[in-house]
Write a structure and sequence with these properties.
The complex is a heterodimer of chains A (286) and B (246). Chain A has 286 residues and is α/β, with parallel strands linked by helices. Chain A has a domain of 71 residues. Chain A has 11 helices and 11 strands. In chain A, the strands form 2 sheets. Chain A has a 6-stranded mixed β-sheet with strand order 7-8-9-3-10-11, with helices on both faces. In chain A, strands 1, 2, 4, 5 and 6 form a 5-stranded antiparallel β-sheet that branches. In chain A, strand 5 and strand 6 form a beta hairpin. Chain B is of the alpha/beta class and 246 residues long. Chain B has a single domain, classed as P-loop containing nucleotide triphosphate hydrolases (Rossmann fold), CATH 3.40.50. Chain B is built from 9 helices and 10 strands. In chain B, the strands form 2 sheets. In chain B, strands 6-7-8-3-9-10 form a 6-stranded mixed β-sheet, with helices on both faces. In chain B, strands 2-1-4-5 form a 4-stranded antiparallel β-sheet, covered by helices on one side. Chain B is globular and about 50 Å long. The mean pLDDT of chain B is 91. The chains are: A alpha/beta (286), B alpha/beta (246). The interface between A and B is medium-sized, with 28 and 27 residues.
């Protein structure tokens, strides 16, 4: 089988609250190879928290516990904060949901990309500039020189998202965590952004964790899918077999989508079973 | 007579060099009891049409009429009894410091209703929320529940035409199904007319009878949902849009 990049075993994310401890993620295990792994679920199911926990981006009072989170056999939990900084961006990158909130509004895009690059690599400004232009071209931006001089508010959502991806890819990470990278985009632009990520996975052999609430998109784009409900993985399946999924929650989600080819008077509404949130997590390890 | 007629509508923002024409010469009519969809990419002007109808976009020209009555720039109170809007983001469209009771009560008071107490109870039942939500604040509600409150507020003056601006795009698919069912039921029960904006073709296919496809401010095609289901597009842009959303 393919070599494993990331190995997560029994991950828990907890938040203490007035009513006791709230478990946002409960016992999630999975491995990631050189593949596109999708994580789907409703809002509040813990999919973003899983992504953030891997990068140790959950701040106090949040608590992250896991048997191990291994990157190339080394447990990320044992690393110091300084060592973690070398992992973030360099080896595992993350693309956030909304480019509008993730870029600095008062810095030109060029300055931001160069800053990110020079933070990790000791290169001259000129080299960093050339590398930035190259990366913007890699994400299909047609006039990179103009974009380098522009401010984030001058960019559309699709452009902003591509810039984010370009920034994340400069250090050539082994793993990219994309948290709803296309939710804020139009369908036509969505396709372009996905194609770019697809190309990068194929050409660079990157591992991709693709977090989304859009079942059809994930079925279409990913290789394997974890379906999360109330902080647990309820089902793991191959993406092309998602439409034959067995778990009643997955079936419920699929049936609640309106369909052009099968018109109906009313949509099916998901009937939640309390057992779903109590059953133990299904392991997504290979 | 149509419930809503839009004839040669132009909407623009800014002046002189900065002027942006958001909607150009849009013409369509929505019959009473019909559900009409507007689709297109972001920035194509679909929401702007709704905003121009309700008076939220100040600069427009052309003719807008509701049941044959032309809308003037200054809208009478009776207009807002007939036409109401549900906004895209339920997190942003409710006052964070007003309870559900205050939100609905204020709307009813402004429209001159006397039996406010009974009506608030009835509205909450109609949108499937029930009494226990009456004295809650928006932060104590989920996204779907907030959108139900927003719908209840729009229904309070007993309107005939409801403008829906992406009512489910901020919600999960499971919650989307509940809200779309609620809108279907309300339309059947009250004989409402819908003008719905969405970027999701399958949602429009489910909810609407006819739709208009927009591109950079212009309506490029008006088609029936039957044609949408068959992917039978005449305009090249519509075909492109269909392919992208498959």
């Amino acid at each position: 089988m393919m070599n494993t990049l990331l190995d997560v075993e029994n991950l828990w994310v907890k938040f203490p609250s007035r009513h006791g401890i709230f478990d946002a993620v409960r016992g999630v295990s999975f491995t990631l190879g050189r593949e596109r792994l999708g994580i789907v679920g409703e809002s509040g199911s813990g999919k973003s928290m899983t992504g953030r926990a891997i990068l140790r981006l959950i701040r106090k009072p949040g608590i992250v516990e896991a048997d191990h989170i291994k990157l190339d056999g080394i447990d990320l939990q044992t690393k110091s904060e300084k060592e973690m900084r070398a992992v973030r961006g360099q080896r595992i990158s993350m693309v956030m949901q909304d480019p509008k909130f993730s870029l600095n509004p008062v810095m030109t895009i060029g300055d931001q990309i160069i800053e990110a690059y020079r933070l990790h690599n000791a290169v001259s400004k000129g080299d960093a500039y050339r590398k930035s232009i190259e990366m913007l071209e890699a994400v299909s931006i047609s006039s990179p020189e103009r974009v380098m001089r522009a401010y984030p508010h001058e960019m559309s959502g699709g452009m902003g998202q591509r810039i984010m991806i370009a920034m994340m890819l400069i250090p050539n990470p082994e793993i990219l965590i994309a948290d709803e990278p296309t939710s804020a985009l139009d369908v036509s632009v969505q396709r372009q952004v996905l194609d770019i990520m697809d190309k990068l996975v194929k050409e660079r052999g990157m591992g991709l964790i693709f977090i989304s609430h859009d079942l059809n998109l994930v079925a279409d784009f990913c290789d394997r899918v974890l379906i999360m409900y109330a902080g647990r993985v309820v089902e793991v399946c191959d993406a092309d077999k998602l439409h034959d999924a067995q778990h009643p929650y997955t079936r419920g989600l699929l049936n609640s989508l309106p369909r052009l080819d099968a018109p109906s008077k009313r949509l099916e509404v998901l009937q939640r079973d309390p057992e779903w949130s109590e059953a133990p997590s299904v392991s997504g390890r290979i | 007579m149509s419930m809503l007629e839009v004839d040669g509508l132009n909407v623009w923002f800014g002046k002189h060099q900065q002027r942006v024409d958001a909607v150009k010469n849009a013409t369509f009519a929505v019959a009473r009891g019909e559900s009409f969809g507007l689709v297109g990419e972001s920035g194509s002007g679909k929401s702007t049409i709704l905003r121009a109808i309700t008076g939220l976009a100040p600069d427009w020209s052309g003719t807008l009429s509701i049941e044959g009555q032309t809308i003037s720039k200054r809208r009478p109170k009776s207009f807002y009894k007939q036409v109401q809007m549900v906004f895209q983001d339920p997190y942003a469209s409710l006052h964070p410091r007003h309870s559900v009771d205050q939100v609905l009560g204020e709307t009813l008071h402004l429209h001159g209703f006397q039996d406010i107490d009974n009506r608030v109870v009835k509205l909450l039942d109609d949108v499937g929320l029930g009494q226990k939500f009456r004295f809650r604040y928006p932060h104590q509600l989920s996204g779907g529940q907030r959108q139900r409150v927003a719908i209840a507020r729009a229904l309070a003056p007993e309107p005939e035409l409801l403008l829906l601006d992406e009512p489910t795009s901020a919600l999960d698919v499971s919650v989307q199904a509940e809200i779309l069912n609620l809108l279907t039921d309300l339309r059947a029960a009250r004989g409402l007319t819908y003008l719905m904006v969405s970027h999701d073709l399958s949602v429009v296919g489910h909810m609407c009878d006819r739709l208009a496809v927009m591109k950079s401010g212009e309506i490029v095609e008006i088609m029936s949902v039957a044609a949408l289901r068959k992917m039978d597009a005449r305009h090249p842009y519509t075909q492109q849009l269909f392919e992208a959303s498959l």
